[in-house]
Amino acid sequence: MKKHIYALTTAFWFVLLVAVASGCDEQVDPVLGTDQAFTFYGFFNPQGDTQSVRIYPIEGTLERTVAEPLDATVTSTNKETGEVIEWRDSIITFRDGNVGHVFYSKFRADHDTRYTLEAVTRNGRNSYVDIRTPPDGEVEITNLFSARSSVIVEMTYTRTPKILQTASIYTVRVLFPDGTGSTTVRVTIRSSQIEQISDDVWKVTIMPSFDIGSIFTALALRPGRDEVFLDEIEVRAFIVSKEWESPIGVFDPELLVQPGTFSNVENGFGFVSGGYYDSFSFQIDDESARNAGFSVE
To answer: 20 to 30 A from 31, CA-CA: which of 16, 140, 150, 283?
Structure first.
């Protein structure tokens, strides 16, 4: 997203891939009798310099693979430019002894662009998926309500197909018990509200006056006795393509990894789309910080 008057950073998102990698091998139902070649899980990140996708072979069942290269040539094709890139296999052994193949390629995917990801075996069996990455949108604070013990901040995201989840990171300073100085810490709170306003327009609402209770609890501080000074709030939103529509209404990895439950892969199983984390940082005025329950110097 473009920068307005607030700091803007991005971070690579790996949650779905990690969830599948750590929990899928022994919990996926068998897929006996299928001609499908592969299962894919991952996403194209237009804010990341490296793209990664987990790929499983299908050989009667989704195999617990061995630590050797997968019989697959994996490529991505930019449907706008025609550029074809071959991906490399990386073999990962997890704590439980299961082995996984994470194919990756070092390139930055373009925003709002169609891609095809394909895996082909030596004998010609293939699976592929067509995806579109989300646009590079914009975000701004559109409302800040401030009254005693009630502070609400509303942000509007435009050119945004879907916001899947958010987190608020509060950067605060707390005093040392002996009064000799202070330390700065970051506390992550997941209490924001996400609402779709119209096509490609979303609203995210946070309540610092509510979140401060979680901050005191996380830092083991005493409201009314210990002082907490607010330096900055960062709202991190996971912005995804419109394909992210769970048929079960929620993104539960234990359910979504079941073959056929949530799949957009042709001649295969799994899910691949586009997504990235957008981080939007801002400060609130002293009066609003005080109304929210923070100390002000």
So the answer is: 16
| Contact residues for 120 (Cβ-Cβ < 8 A; gap 6+) | 37, 72, 73, 74, 126
Helices (H), the chain: 15-23, 208-218, 253-256, 286-292
Q: Into how many domains does the chain fold?
A: 2
Q: SS3 for 291?
A: helix
Tokens coding 148: 């005693």
Q: What is the pTM of this model?
A: 0.81
Q: 235: Cβ–Cβ under 8 A, 6 or more apart, which residues?
A: 155, 166, 167, 168, 169, 192, 204, 206, 279, 280, 281
Structure tokens at 153: 């901040």
163-179 per-position pLDDT tens digit: 999 999 999 999 988 77
What is the distance between the alpha carbons of residues 137 and 280, in angstroms, rounded to a whole number? Answer: 12
The torsion region of residue 28 among left (phi > 0), alpha (psi -120 to 50) and beta comes to: beta
Calculate ∠ Cα 133-138-143, nearest 5°.
140
CA atoms within 13 A on the CB side of 249: 0
259 within some domain? yes
Residues 199 and 78 in one domain: no
CATH number for position 46: 2.60.40.380
Query: Per the domain annotation, does 297 fall within a domain?
Result: no
Which range marks the domain in which residue 182 is found?
138-240+279-292
Q: Could you tell me the end-to-end alpha-carbon distance of the chain, in angstroms, rounded to an integer?
A: 33
Task: Identify whether residues 48 and 95 lie together within a single domain.
Answer: yes
- Distance, CA of 35 to CA of 241 (rounded, Å): 29
Which percentage of the chain shows pLDDT scores above 70? 80
- For residues 147 and 228, state if they share a domain: yes
State the Cα angle at 196 between 189 and 279, rounded to 5°.
40
pLDDT higher than threshold 50 for residue 25: no
Q: Which of 104-108, 209-213, 244-248 has the lowest mean pLDDT?
A: 244-248
